[in-house]
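Input (structure):
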């Protein structure tokens, strides 16, 4: 059973990378392409000031720093991805 099960982790890792690419590239592109006119009409793309104080919407409190520093966020995701991929050749994973 060993030779048949050995490629599964590599295939699962490749599937996760493709899924990450779809989540970061294809899904936003498709949303803009399909909903672009509707989103512009509803002014979702405008940078309206938030009303209320901190804690009003917890998801905004968590997402605002990410959107303010997008490049840093994507660099962090890439570094974490490289570290997780490096675990295999370094034999640090079980």
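Output (sequence):
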């Amino acid at each position: 059973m060993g030779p048949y099960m050995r490629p599964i982790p590599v295939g699962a890792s490749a599937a996760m990378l493709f899924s990450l690419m779809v989540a970061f590239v294809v899904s936003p592109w498709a949303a803009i392409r399909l909903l672009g006119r509707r989103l512009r009409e509803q002014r979702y793309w405008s940078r309206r000031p938030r009303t209320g104080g901190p804690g009003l919407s917890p998801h905004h409190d968590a997402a605002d720093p990410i959107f303010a520093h997008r490049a840093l966020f994507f660099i962090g995701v890439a570094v974490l991805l490289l570290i997780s991929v490096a675990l295999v050749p370094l034999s640090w994973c079980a």
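Notes: The longest helix spans residues 8-41. The chain is about 70% helix and 0% strand.
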